[in-house]
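ok new one. same drill as before - structure tokens go in, u give me an amino acid for every spot. 239 of them this time. try not to just spam alanines like last time pls lmao
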């Protein structure tokens, strides 16, 4: 199914969060936020193992109760506000390799993307094979063209806020821009470790619709995700 390649799914979920305290286990439509990602990961046809990387006992308990493995407790230094996500991923790969368990690829699935589906997970893997890529990162169309943004001087003057070439242009006349949506990061382990990033010349995009690209960081994000999921359920669509 994976061309003989083993894929490890990592769900990173630390306990600390300043923007929305305890967000990874907040109840979203009656389920802890992290559970939305765990459930979709298990529905994937391509992931060989699904683990949660956390330093938090409450998160670990919820993960294990719902079938995800928690093979280690994440080191405290990798659970701070300043810890880099790539270091968490490489720590996980190294832990498994130290224990003689080797994977060809790793997929990072952040629990703050509850509308990402198992189909998105599988599509990303299949796109990697189709493109003969070494990495795949999910993106979506940007809500607003970045050409409409700029820094603002202290006096608030907007004389040079917009570039002359886009003045009075409609949105439809401006090139489409995309943004990272945080839902899926996939790469070969050796590619990832060699450059310490999912991004590189052999990384390609997997485009997701904006309605499945919510990345929860604030209370407003949480409420919007709840609204969208309720709409999906009312429409009778599966998630």
């Amino acid at each position: 199914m994976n061309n003989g390649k083993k894929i490890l799914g990592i769900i990173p979920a630390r306990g600390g969060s300043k923007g929305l305290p305890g967000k990874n286990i907040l109840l979203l439509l009656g389920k802890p936020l992290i559970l939305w990602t765990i459930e979709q990961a298990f529905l994937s046809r391509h992931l060989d193992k699904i683990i949660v990387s956390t330093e938090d006992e409450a998160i670990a308990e919820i993960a294990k109760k719902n079938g995800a493995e928690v093979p280690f407790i994440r080191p405290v230094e990798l659970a701070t506000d300043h810890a880099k996500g790539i270091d968490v991923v490489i720590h996980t790969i190294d832990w498994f390799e130290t224990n003689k368990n080797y994977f060809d690829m790793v997929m990072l699935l952040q629990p703050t993307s509850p509308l990402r589906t198992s189909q998105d997970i599988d599509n990303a893997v299949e796109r990697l094979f189709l493109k003969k890529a070494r990495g795949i990162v999910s993106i979506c169309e940007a809500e607003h063209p970045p050409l409409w943004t700029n820094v603002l001087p202290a006096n608030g003057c907007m004389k040079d806020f917009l570039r002359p070439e886009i003045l009075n242009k409609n949105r439809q006349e401006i090139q489409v821009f995309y943004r990272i949506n945080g839902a899926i990061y996939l790469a070969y382990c050796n590619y990832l470790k060699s450059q310490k990033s999912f991004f590189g010349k052999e990384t390609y995009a997997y485009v997701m619709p904006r309605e499945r690209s919510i990345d929860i960081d604030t209370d407003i994000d949480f409420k919007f995700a709840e609204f969208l999921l309720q709409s999906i359920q009312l429409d009778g669509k599966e998630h």
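The domain at 7-230 is CATH 3.90.550.10 (Spore Coat Polysaccharide Biosynthesis Protein SpsA; Chain A). and btw Strands lie at 7-12, 27-28, 31-32, 49-53, 105-108, 135-141, 178-188, 203-207.
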